[in-house]
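Handoff note, outgoing to incoming analyst
You'll be picking up this chain. Sequence as last confirmed:
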Amino acid sequence: MIKGVIFDVDGVLLNSMPVWENLGELYLNRLGIEAEKGLGDVLFTMSMEEASDYLISHYGLDKTPQEIISGLNSEVKDFYENRVPLKEGVRQYLDEFRERKIPMVIATSGDRRNAEAALKRLKVFSHFQGIFTCSEIGSGKNQPDIYYAAALQLDTDPGDTLVFEDALHAIQTARRAGFKTVGIYDMANDRDLAQIWNTADIYLPEFKDFEIFWKRASAL
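Most recent structure output, in case you need it:
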């Protein structure tokens, strides 16, 4: 019986992929510089520090790495505060869980302030009983600590708790820890799609048909 739900944010609740794909281009545009085609692919796997070094060397920017990192973070902050949308169908799922009095919490590897700003603007933050971040917990989603902390907040056992995630490593971690897992499609994880499909207890290519989903979840 499902008694609680843990939600990831990026790629699950929020369609936040565009800002990470286009972050370098957005930053350069603000400086009046046209970005090269495919810059997003170049920067996507880089850390902020690596990205700043690349932008300095490739575009001859007269800025320090810290100034560029600050500028990139400012673009991300603006996106979450003003533009990032919910994934289609998410609001219905949140409303349905609340209608059934199933408590929900957030477990994210992202920034708390960005997540809160976006979810408050989108008027869904009040659905959740709390928010946990990997930086505050002190370990990433390769370790189950954040899920255990969230379950404590929910006052549920892992076996009675759904974890919604889009990344394979997070799904694997949650499942090994005894949680019931729901894999969510996000383009960022296309390369792992087959494994996600085969690892998660339930796979959702999109948020729709909640009643069908709930019947499957209730049978886990």
